[in-house]
Amino acid sequence: RDTLVKVEDLSVTYHTRIGPVSAVDHVSFEIQKGEILGLVGESGCGKSTLGKALMRLIEPPAEISSGHIIFDGEDIMQYDEEKMRDFRGRRTSMIFQDPMTSLNPMQRVDDHLVEAIQVHEPKTKREKALERTTVLIERLGIGLNRLGSYPHQLSGGMRQRVMTGLGLVLNAELIIADEATTSLDVIVEAKLADQLREIRDEFGVTLLMITHNIALVAEMADRVAVMYAGHVVEMGDIYTVFEKPLHPYTQGLLGSVPSIELNDRDELFKMPGEPPNLTHPPTGCRFHPRCQHAMPICSRLEPDLLKTSSGSLVHCWLYQDHPEKTEKTLKV
Ligand code: SF4
Ligand code: MG
After folding, report:
1. Does 61 sit behind a cis peptide bond, omega within 30 degrees of 0 on the bond before it?
2. 176 close to 210: Cβ distance less than 8 angstroms
3. Ligand 1 test: best mutation among 234, 247, 293, 325, most atoms within 8 Å of CB?
4. Is the pLDDT of residue 156 over 90?
5. For the chain, which domains are there?
6. pLDDT for residue 76 is more than 90
7. Prior bond to 275 cis, omega within 30?
8. Phi and psi dihedrals of 99, rounded to 5?
């Protein structure tokens, strides 16, 4: 697979009264064309910030403080605001938890889509735009009788499909879904997840799925990136990571999912400790205060994000040699 997005050394800093907060801290990874990448972690780990940063939607008092975002070979950090607006609308699309905040309550489904086309393709006639809208709506399984509906007349799952349609009608290459299924009930959520997979297969679109729901990621993603306190701590294909999680945080996170079938929801394991306050992040490995395997080196130095023989990336001293590390190194 080719690379669609290459993120290099990306940092996002919030400037607060009590000092800078590194919400995303020197993160590097790639998103492959046509894949579904799940980005998981507890709330506050920086996953939403990272998603927004990929579209340069970071606003003061926060800023992208380092790094490059190479989209299909071009560094979008070099784009001016006008080029960036066009890029966001045309090549990417973002779906949020509550589509009501992004849909216009006074606008019908068809008008949303027609307007999206006409804003980015001013030369397209209304008739042509409506034709494209109709074809897409049918492919999304929305039902043509919904074209004239207003957002409040649609179910939550249906609204999310309209949001997805807004991206697809302009042939977006990357869809970023941030907790897009979270407010839906379990059945509707599973159905929407299925549909997103189908949409990926049919349209060849790339999907970044940001969620705290690791079971959902197990079901629908091809690869997963696990974030903790502003760092990507583990990344790999679903089977490798779920079968043999390497990072102690991933192990804890997976331990908190009793079964992938979403049974036993009430028996959730709670990982001891709290995510750190990022105004004063822990030194070395940011997970060390919560880690059962912490060694002396862990609080002194930050490990690298290293590739293992299985092709996964892991950010942990257990898998990395260092002269200061006296403990036995586990090899994988
Ligand atoms: Fe635990 Fe050390 Fe690995 Fe961090 S680097 S996860 S503290 S073993
Ligand atoms: Mg969030």
Report:
1. yes
2. yes
3. 293
4. no
5. 3-106+150-319 (3.40.50.300)
6. yes
7. no
8. -65, -20
